[in-house]
Amino acid sequence: MTIPEYININFKTDFKEYHELPFKVTKKTFKKGTVITSYGQIERSAYFLISGLIEITVLKDTEDKIVEFFLPGCFFGAYTSFLSQQPSDVQVSALSNCEVEVIDYDELQNAYKTSLVANQLGRLATESIFIISTKREKDFLTKSAQERYDELLSKRPDLIKLVPVNKIAKYLGIHPESLSRLRKNIS
Prior knowledge:
By secondary structure, the chain is α+β, with helices and mostly antiparallel strands. The chain contains eight helices and eight strands.
């Protein structure tokens, strides 16, 4: 899926009435293991994932904690840094070879001044990331590790297939051994 296809699906309108996007989009590829945005870097781009798998981590003490995974069809990035233009407190990495569409910060800000499409897209992306973050935060506060794992299995089974077990454990906030016990309980 590309940004125009995302607009078609989410705006419930025919994108053909727009002759072109109101901002420049470039395609880029990242090899597996590439750090797209590092800790402390100011995020100057918004990304839309066409193919691949993205991981966002935060550093606590000396350990990376996994904040989120993104699969194709999603906007991603060091979003707080992108919005505030302050150094990032997260790191964005490619967990597989990825193809993305990139929107430059200044391009998007200029488009916001004149384009309803740009404003709708920005709002949709922001709302989506906010909902993902808020749900994850609530889940950590109200659900057991077993409940979080069960929900991951039912709502995001593709992650279980694509992401190594040790990263799934980190994402759930548990040790790999604990994840093994949770998986045995299901079998």
